[in-house]
Design a protein that fits this description.
Layout: H1 3-16, E1 48-57, E2 63-71, E3 78-79, E4 86-88, E5 100-101, E6 111-119, E7 129-135, E8 138-144, E9 156-157, E10 162-163, E11 166-168, E12 176-177, E13 182-183, E14 188-191, E15 195-203, E16 209-217, E17 222-224, E18 228-231, E19 237-244, E20 248-257, E21 269-279
Parallel strand pairs: 13-21, 14-21
Antiparallel strand pairs: 1-2, 2-6, 3-5, 4-7, 7-8, 9-10, 11-12, 11-15, 15-19, 16-18, 16-20, 17-19, 20-21
Length: about 280
């Protein structure tokens, strides 16, 4: 087991069995000098930890690997461009790597399965795809694999009697459930400083579902009219307004789950990705 994997497991266990402790502003603590408890969380100056959630099989025989991240800062947002500080060990596979890392969400502690990688049936259980992430002077990495112990319920869990929401990006789409996600077929356009409408149709048997929006990648900042909220599904579209600070290509990530507390059971949420081109 890699050092990063051990660190990630210990950190998540520490946070799972205790509430977040009060924190004060302090200098960065090197990993070699840290005690792995909630006390390593700081307002700023700490790194983002890349995490591997697990994998799930697909009907066509392929498997999908799920990666997530844990920002150890409660206030600081980090931007880590693709390249030497944010990359995969194997470039044979497509992935929409995040370059924007929001601060620690206190209600659910880390961002779950923010991107996926699909591998062929021939991908052996001892093969890995490593996500490398360098921030705050720390070089961290996590291996993704298809070991049986890491298989995830997807897109439903018989044990919990739960199912991921169905997300449609237009009213007539078939939509998709689960972490593999759905992507807008036509790139949205807009101008810097002007609001762009982002719309989704959510279906689920429960009377209420959670919605969360986030910048996934892009050159500037994004101001959302609403970041997290709950809606009654099956009753028409949900929509937010997003204002982009500068021109460029962006990806916005939408996540939906019936109850935000259910993230901790690693089932069942859905992803959607919006590609947007912004001009001046």
């Amino acid at each position: 087991m890699t050092t990063t994997k051990i660190i990630s497991r210990l950190l998540l266990c520490a946070l799972a069995f205790g509430s977040l402790l009060p924190v004060v502003s302090a200098q960065q603590i090197a990993l070699s000098q840290q005690t792995w408890s909630a006390e390593v969380i700081r307002p700023r100056g700490q790194p983002v930890i890349p995490l591997y959630d697990g994998w799930f099989p697909n009907e066509d025989g392929t498997r999908t690997l799920c990666y997530s991240f844990f920002n150890l800062n409660t206030e600081q947002t980090l931007s880590i461009p693709l390249g030497v500080d944010n990359y995969l060990s194997d470039d044979r596979f497509d992935a929409i790597l995040p370059t924007h890392f929001d601060p620690l969400p206190p209600r659910y502690r880390h961002k779950f399965c923010v991107f996926t990688i699909s591998v062929p049936e021939s991908f052996a259980s001892d093969e890995t795809i490593v996500w490398h992430l360098n921030s705050a002077g720390q070089s961290l990495s996590v291996p993704g694999h298809t070991k049986p112990a890491y298989v995830l319920d997807e897109p439903f869990s018989d044990g919990r009697g739960d199912i991921a929401p169905l997300i449609k990006l237009t009213a007539t789409d078939e939509g998709a459930r689960g972490r593999l996600g759905i992507h807008n077929k036509t790139i949205l356009t807009g101008k810097a400083g002007e609001a762009v409408s982002l719309t989704a149709w959510i279906e689920h048997p429960d009377p209420e579902v959670w919605i969360g929006w986030a910048k996934h990648s892009g050159p500037g900042s994004i101001e959302f009219s609403d970041l997290e909220y709950t809606i009654s599904p099956n009753q028409g579209p949900t929509q937010v307004q997003a204002i982009f600070s500068e021109a460029g290509d962006y990806t916005v990530r939408l996540q939906s789950i019936d109850d935000v507390a259910a993230f901790e059971f690693y089932c069942c949420h859905s992803n959607a990705y919006y590609r947007i081109n912004i001009t001046n």
